[in-house]
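User: Design a sequence. Structure:
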C-alpha cells in the first residue's frame, strides 16, 4: 500500500542555509579586504619622516629625473621648512652633487652653464649651426635699418653674414664685431664702457647709459641659457644688464641660440620669456621644445 506523507524540507533547508552562510562569509571577506586596503591607502598618504641622508638622496633623484628642483615644491612635498631645504641644497652643492640656483638647484653637470668661457672657446662649439642661424638672422634685416648686435660667437657670425648689405646702422658692444664691420659702408656705433676681455665686449653703467639714448629696429641677442620658465640668461651680471638695455632700445627682440642653450639657466637674468619676439635655432632642438616656445607666443625659425 502506498502512503502519502508530508514531504521533508530538512535537507533542502540545510542546503539553503549553508549556501547563504557561504555568500555572507564571502561578502564579509570582501568588505574586510576593502577596509584593509583603504587603511593601507590612508597609511601610505601619511609619510613617515625621512632620515637626513634619505631626504638628500631623494632630492638628488628628483634632480636627475626632472632636471631641477625648486625650494617651494620640496618644502611642500616633504612638509619641511624652506630653511631646511636650503640647508640640504647647500650641503649637496658643497659635495659637488648639484648646483644651487635662485629658488632651487640644477644637476651638477649643469654647472657648465654658470661658467664664463672666452669667446675663442665658444667659437669652437656648434660652429656649423651658428653659421646657419646667422644666415636666417640676416634674412630678417632690410636695407636702411638699425640693428643691435650683442657680443658673442653667434652674433659675430651675423656680422659676417650682413656684409652684403649696403646701408645699415649697427650698434654693438663687441670690439671684434666692430672690427669685422669696419671694412663695410655701415654706420657703426660702438658703445663705451669697461672692457670684458673674456667676451671682447664693453659693459658697465656707461654702456647702459648710451643705450638709453638709442633706438633700433631689431636686436639680436646670443645667450648662454634659455629656459621658458625663466627667460634668457648669461653668466656675467654686467653683461646681462647691458643686454637688458639693448632689449629696451629695440622694437623687436630676436634670440639667436643653438639647441644646446635650451633648458639651461645661467647666473644672471637678461629678460623674461615675454620680452622675446622671435627665436632662431637649429634643427637639433626637439619638436616638443619648438612647440612649447611657439605656444608661449614666440615665433620660431628652425634652420
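Assistant: Done.
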Amino acid at each position: 500500500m502506498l502512503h502519502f506523507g508530508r514531504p521533508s524540507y530538512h535537507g533542502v533547508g540545510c542546503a539553503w542555509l549553508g549556501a547563504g552562510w557561504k555568500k555572507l562569509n564571502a561578502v564579509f571577506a570582501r568588505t574586510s579586504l576593502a577596509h584593509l586596503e583603504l587603511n593601507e591607502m590612508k597609511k601610505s598618504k601619511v609619510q613617515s619622516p625621512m632620515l637626513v641622508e634619505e631626504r638628500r638622496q631623494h632630492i638628488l633623484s628628483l634632480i636627475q629625473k626632472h632636471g631641477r628642483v625648486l625650494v617651494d615644491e620640496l618644502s611642500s612635498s616633504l612638509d619641511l621648512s624652506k630653511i631646511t631645504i636650503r640647508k640640504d641644497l647647500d650641503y649637496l652643492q658643497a659635495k659637488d652633487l648639484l648646483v644651487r640656483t635662485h629658488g632651487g638647484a640644477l644637476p651638477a653637470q649643469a654647472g657648465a652653464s654658470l661658467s664664463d668661457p672666452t669667446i675663442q672657446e665658444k667659437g669652437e662649439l656648434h660652429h656649423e649651426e651658428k653659421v646657419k642661424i646667422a644666415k636666417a638672422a640676416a634674412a630678417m634685416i632690410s636695407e636702411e635699418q638699425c640693428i643691435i648686435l650683442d657680443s658673442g660667437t653667434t652674433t659675430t657670425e651675423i656680422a659676417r653674414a650682413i656684409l652684403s648689405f649696403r646701408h645699415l646702422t649697427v650698434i654693438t658692444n663687441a670690439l671684434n664685431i666692430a672690427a669685422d664691420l669696419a671694412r663695410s659702408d655701415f654706420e657703426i656705433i660702438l658703445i663705451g664702457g669697461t672692457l670684458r676681455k673674456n667676451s671682447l665686449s664693453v659693459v658697465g653703467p656707461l654702456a647702459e647709459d648710451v643705450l638709453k639714448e638709442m633706438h633700433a629696429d631689431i636686436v639680436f641677442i646670443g645667450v648662454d641659457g634659455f629656459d621658458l620658465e625663466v627667460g634668457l640668461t648669461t653668466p656675467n651680471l654686467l653683461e646681462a644688464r647691458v643686454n637688458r638695455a639693448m632689449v629696451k632700445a629695440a622694437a623687436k627682440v630676436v634670440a639667436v641660440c643653438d639647441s644646446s642653450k635650451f633648458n639651461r639657466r645661467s647666473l644672471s637674468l637678461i629678460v623674461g620669456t615675454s620680452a622675446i619676439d622671435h627665436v632662431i635655432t637649429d634643427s637639433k632642438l626637439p619638436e616638443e621644445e619648438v612647440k612649447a616656445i611657439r605656444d608661449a607666443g614666440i615665433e620660431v625659425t628652425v634652420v
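The domain at 52-111 is CATH 1.10.10.10 (Arc Repressor Mutant, subunit A). The chain is about 45% helix and 20% strand.
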